[in-house]
Amino acid sequence: MTSSTATTNKKVRQQVGSGPVLDWAAGHGPVTGALSATTGAFALATTGAATAMPPGWVLAAGAAGALGHTVAGLRVRNAGRTLATRAASWLVGAGWTTWAMTTGPLTWAALGSLATMGIGIGAAARSAALFEEAREEEAIAAEQRQIAQELSAERRAIAAEWVERIQRICSIFVRVLAVEMWPTGTGYSLDLEPQGGITHDRIAQYTVALSADAKLPHGCTAAATPGIHQGRTILDVTTVNVLKEALDYPDDYSRLSVLTGLPWGVRTNGERVSVFLREQCALVVGPTGSGKTNMVHGILTSFARADDLLTWVIDLNAGSAGLPWVLPALNGELESADGKPVRPGIDWLASTHEEAMLMLDAALAIGLHRKKAYQDLLAKANTDLLPVSARIPQIMLVIDEGAEILVSTDRQMKLLAKKILEVIRMLRAMGVRTVLTALGATSSVLGNLMIRREGKVRVALTGGETEGMDLSKMFPGRRGLRVEQAPYKGAGFLGTPESPAALFKAWRILPNQIREITLATSDRHPRLDDVSAKAAGPAYARRWDTDRTAWMRDLTPTDNHDHSPTTSDGLNLSALRQVEGGAGSSEDEMLRRFREEIDAQFATTTEPNSSDGVPGRPAGLDLSALREEQDSPAQQAALAALIAAGPDGTGASAIARKLADAFGTTRQTVVGWLKTWTADGTAVRVGEGTKARYVHRSYLPEH
After folding, report:
1. CA 343: distance to chain centroid?
2. Rounded to whole angstroms, how far apart are CA atoms 183 and 185?
3. Structural domain boundaries in the chain
4. 582 near 592, Cβ under 8 Å?
5. What's the rounded Cα separation, in Å, for the pair 634 and 642?
6. How far apart are CA 221 and CA 268, in angstroms?
7. Could you give the CA distance from residue 455 to residue 279 in angstroms, rounded to a whole number?
């Protein structure tokens, strides 16, 4: 095929070099048309004169040609000037041919008149062609003017409607500079210029009222965002609810880069929203059932498509977020077209505290070693940010429910949180960033300054859940955001430094599609550069060893049965029994100290409702409540503290302070327990407001 094409091109070049190339399929222009008419007339006149052809035949043929072209011109709606020109050309040509046949076509008079006729026909044809072009352009322009007039009328109506609405509701006068209809047909944008130095945030205060006044459908909003400068505002008005329906992840698995943006979903106007994580961390919050896990898979998909990213995942919930990206490849269930081994969709997966510590230690070692090893590269590039690429990839740490780890009071979790914060704080320039998820946008999650400062890419999947979803804390300074605007799974709000927080919809990804993405992107995953791999050491090099990944394939439940001769197989209920032969856990030790304290103070060693044998001495304190099954050792300790308070009682704050060090219990948790105990009669509330205290039922008169 290539050789034949080259031969054809060669022949064309030879023809071009030897002379002009005639296109016999092309139509006649004014010059070629006149030349064809005159030569044809001369040839017919010469032949007719030589053969004594009757002149009337020529006149009949000319009249037929004129009539045929007139009919054809009328069908295509040619102008009258064009019809007259073509008919006249036929008749004039037929007249000259008839005259030349009778007088002789080879006379100077015949030849001169023929040349004059040809020039006249060419000039007339050219004039008619120009007139037709101008007429056609004018018709197109008129049609466009009509369309623009209709569209302009619609836009003017929209502009006038919103000027009146904003003035009536917001008491702000605005001028509409432009109205842009969205190509998706789901809404439009207005370019506003508020008068009097008013900025976009003033209008954003009234977006709920504006949406209601415009009678927008549920899930549609009128959102005000900054314009081209501080004196302009863009008002995006959504008229079709695109958040309700599930959106499947597109079949496009093309190559991406962390430097050019990673798509995480679509806005209400149908545009894809991309995040830039070269320097930013991300925070994704969403309650149970909001589609957060699916959002994590969408994030992992964008990372898998990038050729300059390596993804490490920490999921202490049995590694569930990363297993679909790892197991099919490790088990050999995927086959590539070229027969090469298929690599997992993520580069490292940790499901335990120990493995997570190894991963974080490796990330810190990589970042610190890169700072020293790549000084020449940084100097050559004249930058303080490591130039990430397929040769030196960026590492993205995805930590499922990582925000909860940062606020946990568990000793192991505190160590893990310390490492995570070190990664966030120290390794931005060296290409190590994090994506944390959380169950809610609460003050405890967003209370850490490091998360707020570094996690500028924020996602809030609401799912219609209002508890623990404080959007004002999640997106400070962004007004008009309400959970009720996104009550659907996978819908919520996404904000980045480049794009203000607004409604968006995450794509739906099914397990089979995860397999497709893993297979399609296997050859795209970069290898960790030698400098970083050396710094990470054996912990990274042996991450896929059999003993390190056995937990992924082991479907046998953990053997927690008590196999003593006196105990049959069954559930392990040791949590409800005293630990034998030792002090037990720290929670049990704390509870044991509480009980000893109560025994020493109130002589409660006897069984409930029994007398110690001394006449007149009341029976010992009833501690049966401590022997009843409680939800946790912390709750048992709280009840013990309530009993230890005596008949004067105590408050929730005092109990929380006693339990804070050992259990990390908050005042809100203690308040919940006290309310439960008050409802079931275990405790009685005395007093109101800040002076309220709780007394155990054993101190009541009837006891």
Report:
1. 25
2. 5
3. 29-142, 172-238, 262-553, 585-610+620-699
4. no
5. 12
6. 9
7. 10
Per CATH, the architecture of 262-553 is what? 3-Layer(aba) Sandwich (3.40)
Q: At what angle do helices 30-51 and 108-170 cross, to 10 degrees?
A: 150
| Residues 280, 428: Cα–Cα separation, whole Å | 8
Specify the DSSP element, H or E, that contains 311: strand 309-314
* Distance, CA of 506 to CA of 242 (rounded, Å): 11
Average pLDDT along the chain, 703 residues, taken 10 residues at a time: 43 43 50 67 67 70 70 69 71 72 71 72 72 75 66 82 93 89 88 89 89 87 87 90 86 92 89 92 89 93 96 92 92 83 93 93 95 94 94 95 82 90 93 91 75 89 74 80 83 89 90 92 93 94 90 63 39 40 49 56 45 42 44 78 86 82 75 83 79 82 60
Q: Give residue 569's Cα distance to chain centre.
A: 50
Which CA distances in Å does 63 have to 86, 88, 97, 340? 11, 10, 13, 78
The Cα-based distances of 250 to 263, 470, 493 in angstroms read 11, 31, 20
Q: Which two tokens stand for residue 566?
A: 């006196």
| Beta-strand pair 394-399/309-314 | parallel
Instruction: Give the dihedral of Cα atoms 550, 554, 560, 561; nearest 10 deg.
Output: -140
**What CATH number does domain 585-610+620-699 carry, 2.40.360.10, 3.30.450.30, 3.90.79.10, 1.10.10.10?**
1.10.10.10
Q: Please, what is the end-to-end C-alpha distance for the chain in angstroms?
A: 103
Rounded Cα gap, residues 342 and 514, in angstroms: 13
For the question of whether the overall pTM of this predicted structure is more than 0.85, the answer is: no
Q: Please give the structure tokens belonging to residue 226.
A: 């900054």
d(CA 170, CA 579): 67
- For residue 701, count other CB atoms closer than 10 A to its CB: 4
SS3 245: coil
Angstrom distance (rounded) from CA 125 to CA 30: 5
CA distances from 442 to 404, 438, 702 (A): 11, 9, 44
Buried b / exposed e over 232-242, threshold 16 CB at 10 Å, is bbbbbbbebbb
**Token match 């103070």: residue?**
601
Length of the chain: 703
E strand or H helix that includes residue 117: helix 108-170
How far apart CA 585 and CA 592 sit, in angstroms, is 10
How many other C-beta atoms can be found within 10 angstroms of the C-beta atom of residue 530? 11
CB atoms within 10 A of CB 629: 8
84-87 long-range Cβ contacts below 8 angstroms, 24+ apart: 85/124, 85/125, 85/127, 85/128, 86/128
| Tokens, residue 680 | 């079931």
Angstrom distance (rounded) from CA 166 to CA 202: 11
585-610+620-699 shares the fold of 262-553: no
Do 92 and 121 touch, CB atoms closer than 8 A? yes
CA distance 602 to 699: 12
How many whole angstroms separate alpha carbon 614 and alpha carbon 607?
Answer: 15
